[in-house]
Amino acid sequence: MSNQLLGNLRDANPIPHPDRLLTDEADARAFLATVQERRHGMANKTQPEVQPTEAPPRPTEARPDSEAVISVVRGPRRRFVYGLAAAVAVLIVGTLTWIAFIDDGESPVAAPVDIGRSFIEAQDAWDAEAAIALFAPNKLATGFLTVVEEFPSYYAWLETLDWRYTAEECNQVAVGPPVEVTCSYSYENAWTQALGVGPYSGSSMRFFIADGQIQQLNNTFITNTGFSVQAWEVFTDWVSDTHPENLNVIIDLGIEGRTADVPIVTPEALVLWEQYTNEFVASVAP
User: Fold this and answer.
1) pLDDT (tens digit, 9 = 90+) per residue, 21-55?
2) What is the Cα–Cα distance from 269 to 247, expressed in whole angstroms?
3) What's the CATH number of domain 112-220, 3.40.50.10470, 2.60.120.650, 3.40.50.1450, 3.10.450.50?
């Protein structure tokens, strides 16, 4: 080993005591070999594996308290507000519809069958106004003593004789329009009650109804079920015997005698109808 190498070795490895200074070349080489062996061992020594560590979660950016509250509440509150608005809208529409209905003053259209029953009930109550109100302007009625416009006189005659009508069955027989309804009914009056006969069934009314109004009404008044013989003829015979001078005042006898037998309902005749009915009932009372 050269003196330069030994000098470098001595400079790189200072020692505190002069006695330990390497001056012999053999010792220096042995020491250098030892140093190189240490360096080689340190280079080849397995280093402990360093496990990578996960980066700590990035802290969420803090928001102001007011904004955080809004982010939590905004969704449900919005749904609640929308639901409340929809409910209010429905309430408003329903209220306006109800108000419009009230303002129009219109009532629901009655079923045709109910209209038929209502007419018979009005006739049973001798309520001409209610009966006329069920008809359309272009009304037509057949089988009655008068036209519809003269129902007040006709119903006054019914009241004088205490006529009673009972609807037995009402059925819709045609869809229409107009809808067709038939109602069967029974009847009785002061004469039949005094004589102990009746009531009589078999009569019927046929209604033609459109838009909740009676367009046409055909009344089939059946008298051959016993009423003619048991009541009508008994009463008219009594009048003929007791008040012959006024028989033609209350009854239209027709051209050939008593073939028509149509009651007359003038104001003068109504007075006599009431008088003679009361007398007849009293005469047959037990």
Assistant:
1) 445 555 556 655 654 565 555 445 555 454 555 55
2) 10
3) 3.10.450.50
